[in-house]
Write a structure and sequence with these properties.
This is Oxidoreductase. The protein is an alpha+beta fold and 228 residues long. It contains eight helices and six strands. The protein is globular. The structure holds 3-iodo-tyrosine (IYR). 3-iodo-tyrosine (IYR) binds at residues 98, 101, 114, 119, 178-181.
């Protein structure tokens, strides 16, 4: 298999793309099943200690890494943090930032938007979930001393994380999209290069037996679709 390297100086050669056409009735069945399964996805904040096969996480990352990206620059790095000591340091730093945030840095409007969810500065999942994945966005590509700008980085990495969450859910796993703010400490603790910026911290595992989630209601499709 080819190893990827950035292309600046020549067009990609066109290659045929002829996926087998799915019969419409099968498409409809798959789409409805996927819709119903994805309606069961919930953000989980309490994880069971039960081990998770690492392959499930690696396969979900593989799915995320197929996301479309600006100029096909694939501006993402997935850091799978195994070292318990590193995880402990991330938790301490994240809880320190969150304490300042919840103590007022977020501002009253933001804090009242969060109140219904009942979140607070405590982030036990950072150390307690079986896996911790930290997603970084590559703001530019570093080629020795040369820098090449990346395009649509937020959009590309956001799509990749959406695909990751979908893959995890369809594999039977639960996850939390945690965005401590500011996240600069993650680059330091994880030793990431200067072209990378933390995007999200994603604990992964099975929900704890006594896990609860807020009684949320999703918008009805009539509230999110406009047909013109
Ligand atoms: N980053 C904080 C606050 C927070 C912000 C939003 I917007 C949320 O949807 C949830 C939490 C935290 O993780 O607690």
């Amino acid at each position: 298999m080819d190893t990827w390297s950035p292309i600046h100086d020549r067009p990609y050669s066109p290659v045929p793309y002829r996926p087998e056409r799915m019969p419409v009735d099968e498409s409809l069945r798959v789409a409805a099943e996927l819709r119903d399964r994805m309606r069961e996805r919930r953000t989980v904040r309490a994880f069971a200690a039960d081990p998770v096969p690492e392959q499930l996480v690696l396969d979900a990352i593989a799915v995320a890494a197929t996301a479309p990206s600006g100029a096909h620059q694939q501006p993402w790095t997935f850091v799978l943090v195994r070292d318990p000591e590193v995880r402990a340091r991330i938790r301490v730093a994240a809880e320190e930032e969150e304490r300042v945030s919840y103590d007022g840095r977020l501002g009253e409007e933001w804090l009242s938007a969060l109140r219904p969810l009942g979140t607070d500065m405590h982030k036990p999942h950072i150390t307690d979930a079986p896996f911790l994945l930290v997603v970084f966005q590559q703001r530019f590509f570093l080629d020795g001393d040369e820098q090449h700008k990346h395009y649509y980085v937020d959009e590309s990495v956001g799509i990749a994380v959406g695909m990751l969450l979908t893959a995890l859910h369809l594999s039977g796993l639960a996850a939390l999209t945690h965005t401590p703010s500011p996240m600069r400490f993650l680059s330091e603790v994880l030793g990431r290069p200067r072209n990378e910026k933390a995007f999200a911290v994603i604990p992964i595992g099975y929900p704890a037996e006594d896990a609860v989630v807020p009684d949320l209601v999703r918008k009805d499709l009539t509230q999110v679709i406009v047909e013109v």
